[in-house]
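Fig. S4 source data, part A: sequence.
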Amino acid sequence: MGETPGSLAREQSGLGDHVYDVATSDAHSQVFSVLVEDRWERLTAGEFATEVTSVAKGLVAAGVSDGDRVLVVAPSNHDWVRLAYAVWSVRGVLVPLPVEASSERLAHVVRQVRPAVAVVAGERAHRVVVGLQREMPDLGRVWRYQEALPDVVGLGAYMDATAVRFRRDEVVPEDPAVVLYPVSTESRSMRGVVLSHGALLSSAADLVDRMWPRLSELAAGRASAVMDLPLSQLPGLSTMVACVVAGVRLGVAAPGRLRAELVRFKPTVLVCTARDLEGVHGAERATAHSTDWDSVGTFNAAMDAAVQFDQAKKKGAWARLSRSMYDWSFSKIRDVLGGRVHLAVCWGGGLPERLDSYFGGVGVPVMQVYGIAEAGGVFSANAVGDRVPGTVGRVLSDRRWWVSPEGELHLRGGAVFLGYWADVEGTRAAFREGWLATGVLADVDEAGFVRVRGRVRAQASLEPVPGRFVPGRGDGPGMEPERALSAVPEVVEPVVSVEEPGGFEEPWVSQARVVRAEPEPESVESGVVARADEVERSSDAELVAGFEERLRAHPLISQVLVIVEGRPFASALVTLVRDQLEYWRLVNGRPLSMAPEEIAGDRDLLREVQGLVYEANRSVPRHLAVRSFHVLAEEFTVQSGLVRPSGELRREAVLRAFSEEIDGLYRVRRD
């Protein structure tokens, strides 16, 4: 293959090196596109390096030292990108969280990683982090996020840039670069995955090498991509690093804005998920159905022609002629994608084989890729000329794989994480005799192509996550945390299914009776000790309102209504955030065809919600503890008459509308 951008990246010591190397060798090359008002403006390598340096000087002026953690809770945009590269350039460690992170999750991460400084968006998140400064004196400045980061930049305005250069020269590939907390509905149980500079560069280089035969067909300066993937999560972070390595000009769109930005941006590389491609195909199919039956027949015939052309081993004259008859139809799809897409990189797999072949036949070859944080990013990917539709491709060449009898994929070689932050046992349990147990259920065919069937665990480690603990004394990954005294654990006795613990009477109903081993004089929550007599003095209404608020703080939960009056025990109706349902489906490997109602009824999702309810039960006395709940995929809305314009639930209206579901929560099956 010769020298590629990937091979050059492997020779670099740190993530920031590429930024400055390109700025030195080709300062006028265009490396990013920035959305300014309603138009995308291109940014050169020299301009971007200047931006990164200005932010990096502010971090140094704020006292960020080698290995210090920098918490970033900010929207995914260009400011996030330059802040990340500034952190890496001063040998800091990036700790990113989505702006939707719950207060509890945010406080847990801050206590665990003990950042030196933080950039935080939103009043709620800012209040949480500032409130933790009293108990953590090593947490210095907490900047409220503003566009262009003026407070950070202003702090280092009069500092010489050599301070940044000296730090960057000291970076080595083994230095930790990111503590990544993968998306999950489990707020307290997720571990921070520590990734080094070398792991992120290696993973990005492997992905670029796999895509390079197709990318190299583009003229110099023509490679461009736009994405709306969250930068705080693995797909967005890996894509950002890979684009910088490959010299692909990248634009970061706001979440949910990809379709709207494609025509304006006109990318040559489409970075997406299977859901995005399904949406494009579904919209065109719906247009055909809304016209007439002839349009439907033509659409179906065009799809058959595209699939047959893509799957044909030899693209002979007859196959090309059959496809050309419907090129007018295929041009509509290409126009929706911006009209210039040369390659589509589809994160997370899950695109059905027929739809995968359809886009290939249209002229937009889809390279499905898959990875986990513990593997440093992508570990398998398709490539032009080495692609099987419906799969996530072959495991990358420098990795070996093995599938256990239970169907779990194990990996060895390539980019591997440094460990879980402050969790020696969890790190050790992620490996089996040197093999990384990915937690991914997969089938691998004789040719080595991988089909992902789901997840057996949210993360690689096989060990249960420890209970409550306070941050360790150590400053780096692998340091054992001190265990805190915790409340007596709850014992959950399933009411419905004795044969299967945690079973459900119906797919959408979870019923369990919560019993404490013995009365507790006090409970511990978020480091604050609340005595039982103080809890009892609060009114039931206040306690219920607090319970509902605790659940709503979680990104998966939209609305909560606790039912107590006139019932033998407390129960609850819970609605879920639609976008978070899709994240949950993606992380847990559920099929894209799964309807929101099916996702909301998934047993694994219900168990996760059940865990949230159990944890919230610690904040209320036993007679208010929720013992059953009903999960709804659709949120209550003003239009339905269930929500006031202020956002407050119309309790009586909700109780009437869902009376049957509520009554079902109090029916216990007796076999």
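Fig. S4 source data, part B ends here. The chain has three domains: 14-196, 260-455, 490-664.
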